[in-house]
User: What shape does this take?
Amino acid sequence: MALIGRERRAAFGTRLIFEGLVNAQGDKVGAIVHDLGATNVLSFSVRPVDGDLVEVSSRIECKNANPFTWTHALTRVDDRLHDLERTPDMPDPCVPGRTEYAIATYLADKPEHAPIACTMIDEITGGRHRAVFTWTGPGTITWTLDGALRRRYTVASERIVSSEQGALTAVLAADEDDLLSDIAPAIRYRVIDFMKDANRR
Assistant: This one.
């Protein structure tokens, strides 16, 4: 009998991670779901941008859950699809921009690991940027892009528990129910639709 959805993820040791986006007032204003699979990195977010909710989903195909071996990236911003294929002229190592969480997660249980430097490819524009992921202190990983701080991750018990994203903070949720509690219906419905699709894969 074939395994589907959550059963397959559990069988292959893949991880489903939920984060709520919280503003300075402590209100949950967005949601993020990461599905770190055996051969792909899947991500989904609903976040406020200039007063509107913007939905972004991406699927990055890679080998052995290693984002540096990616071959193809599909990113949808609301209803617009961006398709990026790795080409021979791309630098090595390089990653699509939407794999940043997977790289930070890789570092989270390796506090002695050397900084990871790579070229980050913008899936929408194709632009190339210098990225560095590094431990900058006990419990802190930073991601810089072209020398500027892009995100700071807080690590506890070898996992990312929160990360700062400009005015918003992404906070680890215990599960899907925890993520969806006290959240606007417009966000809830989008997350539920994404999870239904994920569970069919």
